[in-house]
Amino acid sequence: MPETKPDVAPIRAALAPLLPHTLVALDFDGVLAPIVPRPEDARALPQAAHVLTEVARRVARVAIVTGRPALDAVRFGALEKVPGLVVCGHYGLERWRDGRVESPGEAAGIVEARSRATALIRDFPGTTIEDKGHSVAIHTRRADHPDAAFTALRPHAEAIAADTGLQLTPGRLVLELRPTGVDKGAALRDLVQEVSARAVVYAGDDLGDLPAVAAVRSLRTDGVTGVVVYSDSSEAVPEFREQADLVVDGPAGVLGVLQDLLIS
Ligand SMILES: O=P(O)(O)OC[C@H]1O[C@H](O[C@H]2O[C@H](CO)[C@@H](O)[C@H](O)[C@H]2O)[C@H](O)[C@@H](O)[C@@H]1O
């Protein structure tokens, strides 16, 4: 198992007086939900909703910032009842709050991207498409050779993105074609502004989280206390890991560190 950076005591002490002004923002897959072969089977750990409820009672806001459609994260996490929860779906393109989703119209290019991605994977047995409405994800986790399929598909996905005006976001054995103009960094900054947060805790695990990590680092220069938690795994993202204040072991480690930092 990867070596962790578990020195929570000084961070807990720094956050303690700021709890009512703290934003806690979390990625979903790999952070609340263990990675599984089929995207539709992902579920947050059973204790996640309870831990987030306890956290929400102590801080300004709890938010999920995910590449998933917002409603998928709410349902797969059983998170409907977490007090005041905001879910930024599709990297901030849509929002769920109080049972309602705000979502824009479909981006130009998505119909062509969907059709080309579907045709493309026919040559790569075991690869699958996750049609998320606003975006299309090409998954290689169930291919015979997941890493080789990912590498082979990537230039084709880049060409589709260039032709359709979408952006390609690579992740854990996934290539996502999604609208431009949003990322987790902008979503995080909006959330910070909305609650006038004086501290932010962000937990993630993948490349799509790096804009949020950059936002936390830049918010520090504005006087906001920032804590970055990295959910580690055998699919490590070194550029995320090295920027993290705390490195924990997967979703169970994330829930544990939230408890240590914000509840106990
Ligand atoms: O921003 P996130 O909440 O981390 O979402 C990123 C993508 O996660 C999902 O894919 C990943 O998890 C799957 C289920 O465990 C796994 O099968 C896949 O290999 C991972 O890449 C999700 O399916 C994507 O739509 C998300 O964008």
UniProtKB/TrEMBL annotation:
Which keywords, in A-to-Z order, does the entry hold? Hydrolase, Magnesium, Metal-binding
Q: Which cofactor does it need?
A: Mg(2+)
Positions the record marks as coiled coil are none
Q: Which GO terms of type biological process are on file? A: trehalose biosynthetic process
Supply the enzyme class, top level: hydrolase
Q: Name one GO molecular function term.
A: metal ion binding
- At the top level of its lineage, which domain of life is listed? Bacteria
Q: Which Gene3D superfamilies match?
A: HAD superfamily/HAD-like (3.40.50.1000), Trehalose-6-phosphate phosphatase related protein, domain 2 (3.30.70.1020)
Q: Quick one: which pathway?
A: Glycan biosynthesis; trehalose biosynthesis
E.C. designation(s):
3.1.3.12
The reaction(s) annotated as catalysed by this protein in its Swiss-Prot or TrEMBL entry are:
alpha,alpha-trehalose 6-phosphate + H2O = alpha,alpha-trehalose + phosphate
Q: What is its biological role?
A: Removes the phosphate from trehalose 6-phosphate to produce free trehalose.
State the similarity comment: Belongs to the trehalose phosphatase family.
Name of the protein = Trehalose 6-phosphate phosphatase
Q: Which organism is it from?
A: Phytoactinopolyspora halotolerans
